[in-house]
Every structure is written in structure tokens, then in C-alpha cells.
Amino acid sequence: MLRLLAVLAMLLTWVSGAHSSPNDSVKVLPDSSNFVTASLLTISPTNEVYSVFGHTAIRMECPVHQLDYVFTFESDPSVNGFVTFFAGKAKARFIAVPTQEFIESMRGLGRGVKQYELNLTLHEEQELWRNLDNDMVEGAHRKFNLLVNNCVSMTVMKLHQSCINEHIEWGKEGKLTLLDNGDYVRQCVGRSPWAEFLFITFMGSVCEESYGYESRLCPENIITEMKKASFVSEEDEKRPVLTGEEKELLPVTGTLKETKVTPMLLFVVLLVFTCLLTFAEWRWNWIKPARIYDVILFVTQTLLGLGLLYITFVSELLGSHWNWYLIPFNPLPLILWLCLRKQKNYGRIYLLYTVVLVAFIALTPFLSQLDVPHQLITVVLAVRCGSKYWNYKLNKK
Q: Left if phi > 0, otherwise alpha if psi is -120 to 50, otherwise beta: which for 66?
């Protein structure tokens, strides 16, 4: 269905171009350099998880035939799309939206839009438009991936594909490649603590790696980097990738709300509550409240572990990578409890798990994925496991 709609949209574009009367007020220059104009659009971020990085799109204009479209690489942002996104099944595709319609949709969200003209030749602009049209016709044939198939990577790919007898040469990489992937993502989404928490949770050991330069481009830095980049011909002639001045098509009217309840605050409160409850369990014999809390805690831990296992090994939202948080979050403790709880020395498993958790906490300075907000939860699990082992030891005497 999406493919059919895309084909119809493109046909309508061609038909409108073929049958609309040329705009006589637009004079084509002798070299036809203003017949088609290609521009890069950057859209400001929002608090939503799927748009916290901001957005990048390509605007294609043919003033003579009154054609003006924004080609934007999109996945489904609906509730169902949010679920399929984290399930690793979100499909993404280029869609063409009339520029004014696109601007109005951003206005409704309070997002700002800025435009930067690309310094492509006429034939390259035509090739870019053709490539975007062809990609749109193919429909949602790509699996959305934060590290590979995203709005910036697809935009850069289309620029590479549209170069004719030349290539893009980037400027000095600067600080972009100095950080590992984990710290780079933290830098990009630091304004949204919960988005940062989620992305770091799912990234796994890829946090320890350092991806290449183009993989580090995002809506926030792509203009800075493109201002340093050049188109280089086979004769080694260079011209800048961007030309002209920045144009603000739409000012930012929405505000990025600061989250009052951050992961750090929430899990500090959880740890304090856990410590107080554990103290009350030992000081005033609050056995039943502690048991109820343990059931809630470890059932939640198991469910989170199952979800993390799925995202790591099935959905591959960020590719196939080991995830360090599978050590504290996995269904193994529940499986052991179900199978061995009636065994005489079962309580020693609590000691073993406590030791594993403490050792995992000690790794925090050495692994980029591990950070304080996540490890506060690990401390909570360690406190309760240690308490349960101590109970077992006392009851055995």
C-alpha cells in the first residue's frame, strides 16, 4: 500500500510539473543553475524520544514549474510506531511533503526549521531529485536503525549517490571521533535524561566502540561539519558543500521542558527507600513488607531482563551486540528460584548473586555503557540479595 501511494505521489508530482503553467516571474539563468535548487533542512529537537536528536531533511525546488517538496526520512511516530521502534521492526522510508505543508506541521509542534543551500551542479541536483524519487517509490524498505539508517545517514548517502565525477571531502574531524559511542550519545541527548537512559540501556557493548566520522554526524552538528566539507572533482578542484547564507524558515516556538524526575533522582529515592526498608526489616522485624517489596522488585527485574534479551538478540535495534546490563537484568534468578527454592542450600545463591552484582558495580569506571543511574538499580538488587542471604544464614543456625 505504501509503495502504491508513493508511486501515485510521484506521478502527481510529474503531472503537476507537466501541466502547471511555468512561472513567468522566475527567469532561468543562462547556465540554468537556478532551475533546480537543493537545500539541507535542520529541524530542532523535541522532548519526544524519537525526535530528541532533532531531524534533517532535503528540500528540492523547481521555481519555474512551481515544484517545492521536502524529502524526509521517516519512521512511524505513532504509539504503535513507538512500540515497533523498540522492537526493532520499525520500517523507514523517504516521503515527499509539499514544503509549506511540512513547515506548518513543524509549526504545530513548535519546532524550528533552518535551510542551507547545497552547492551541487545542476546535473547533480537533478540526479539527487531522481534518487530521492526512486527511493520514495520503493516505500518503507529499510529497517530503521539509530546507528545506520537514520535521517542524517540517509541524507548523506543520497548526497554521495548524486555526486557526478566528484566526491565529498570532509574537513578536520575535530572532537567528533575522540569520544567512544556511549559518551558521544550522552553528549548528543544530554538535554533529555530519560532518552539518554534508554539509548544507553539498549546500546550494549557498542558503547565501548568508536564509529567512523560520518556515523557521528547528527542534526545538531551536521551543518558545522558540512561548512568544513568540499566537493572534490577528479581534477582535484574543490568547492564548498554549502553555499549562501543560513535561512530561518521557521523560528522555534516550543520549549524543551526540563525533566524534574530524572533517572538519577528516581533511583536515588528507590535506593534510599530500599535501605530504609531493609533497616526496618532488621530493626523492627518488618518481614512481610520486605517480602512484598522483594516480589515486586524481582518480578520487575525479570520482566526488564526479558525485554532486554529480546532487544539485544532478536530485534537488534542497534545491531547485534553484547549488553552488559544483561548481568543484573535477566530471568536467571527467577528460574533458579523456581527450580531450586526447596533445596537445602538454596540461600547460598543469594550470596553468589550479591557477589556478582558487587563485582559488576566495580566495573563501572572501566566500561562506557555503565553509569551511575543504571548502577543505582544494581545497588538496590545487591542490598536486597545480601539481606535475603543474611536471613537464610540466621535461620540456618
A: left
Domains of the chain, each with CATH number or no CATH: 2-177+212-250 (3.90.1720), 263-396 (no CATH)
Q: What is the overall mean pLDDT for the chain?
A: 85
Model pLDDT, residue 149: 76
Distances (CA, A) of 17 to 6, 12, 23, 39, 220: 17, 8, 11, 20, 34
Its sign, for the CA torsion 14, 16, 19, 20, is: negative
User: What pLDDT, in 10s, does the model give residues 31-90?
Assistant: 455 679 999 999 999 887 778 889 999 999 998 888 999 999 987 554 445 555 555 566
348-362 and 332-340 helices cross at what angle (nearest 10)?
Answer: 170
C-beta contacts of 272-281 below 8 A and 24+ residues apart: 274/380, 274/383, 274/384, 275/383, 278/383, 278/384, 278/387, 281/387
Give kind and range of the element (H or E) at residue 239: strand 238-240
Q: Could you give the CA distance from residue 215 to residue 198 in angstroms, rounded to a whole number?
A: 20
CA–CA distance, 238 with 155 (Å, rounded to integer)? 21
Q: What is the pLDDT of residues 77-91, one digit of tens each?
A: 544 455 555 555 667
